[in-house]
Amino acid sequence: MCGRYATTNTEADLGELFDAVPVAESLAPSWNVAPTDPVPVVRVSGSLGSRVLDTARWGLLPPWAKNPRDGARMINARAETVAESPAFARSFQQRRCLVPADGWFEWVRTGKQRQAYYMTPLDSSVLAFAGIWTKWRGETLTCSVLTTAALGGLAEVHDRMPLILPRERWGAWLAGGGDDAGELLSPLSAEALAAIEVRAVGAGVGNVRNNGPDLVVAESDVNVVADGDETLGERLPETLF
Q1: Tens digits of per-residue pLDDT, 192-224?
Q2: Would residue 132 be called left, alpha or beta, if left means φ above 0 and alpha means ψ between -120 and 50 degrees?
Q3: Closest CA to 101 of 78, 130, 79, 135
Q4: Annotated catalytic sites, by residue?
Q5: Which helix (H) or strand (E) holds 174?
Q6: Pairing between strand 30-33 and 127-136?
Q7: What is the pLDDT of residues 157-171, one digit of tens each?
Q8: C-alpha dist (Å) from residue 31 to 103, 116, 118
Q9: Are the CB atoms for 78 and 89 separated by under 8 Å?
């Protein structure tokens, strides 16, 4: 995952889907979320004792971070090391969240050409990325998205992908704690993986100034399903995931 995703559902729709109470100002839809942007997250509020729909800055800032810009390098936490990482371990144990998304972007290079791809559910349902959060200096809510090894045809686009949680795993993830990290961090099922489309889209998403539904429109008929075997080209190494 290359540091860009889309999240366009309304506060009302997300609140209903995740059974969460909105506690922050609603955000405008974004088809081109970039590092350090404000994003919707679902977490458990200790004071309210319930799920809340909140806003976090994308890029977790650990307590020792000196500059908010440092979060641009912390937008992801690897599932393989999150439980031991000094920057992420405490949040993994105590402050887990869900990051709602429509889909995410990656790039593949074929010769001198860069092709953008958009990974999104075939049925246009909302994805729940596994996330962790913290409050930097007690004020700024920040978050990271967990990533794992890419599966099936998604590995032809990039070797990493966000850790996606199906509805039946939301409760355990948000509860915090848990001794079985392996179960919490288990990958997406083959059935769920097969429901993700890999869609060729235009180059516009490469510019953070661009934002609109045109960024996720199929550029051509070069669409593959995530459990396919087609080789797309050379995966680009310059990824934050």
Answers
A1: 999 999 999 999 999 999 999 999 999 974 444
A2: beta
A3: 130
A4: 2, 106
A5: helix 170-175
A6: unpaired
A7: 999 999 999 999 999
A8: 9, 14, 11
A9: no
